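Technical note accompanying the year-one report. For the benefit of new consortium partners, we illustrate the data format agreed upon in the data management plan: each record pairs a sequence with a structure-token string. No post-processing was applied to the example shown here.
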Amino acid sequence: MRFSGVGEDISWAEWQVLWSLGERIHKTAKAISGHSGLTKTKISRAVKALEDRRWLERCRDHDDRRFELLALTAAGMEGYAMLKRRATDYQRWLEGAIDLPYLRSLADGLSGVEMMIASGQFTAPQPSIGEPAA
């Protein structure tokens, strides 16, 4: 799945990495994978794609050399800021287009699901054998 914008085209996994680093929530691919529910392979590919775009850089963790710390470059911060503005604009449009009590109920429900995922009570479903991966 890819999301397009003016001059940009990024995958959902790339957006998850970009958002996590832009909001300074996580600094490693493993942590982003655990938080997002996406496989380490998808996150690794997203990291590589953002690195190729020069939006991200890696460096070894000085405390634990098994890990690479990820950080956005100046170009990555600009890309993140642009996408965040676009998301905010869309959120404002959505709030104007959808009945506000319904939107609040939807937001509350999604927040509940996010809290369940974060607490480990709920995990993302894994594709069944023979089921195509998204």
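Partners are asked to follow this layout when depositing records. The helical segments are 12-22, 29-36, 40-52, 74-97, 100-119.
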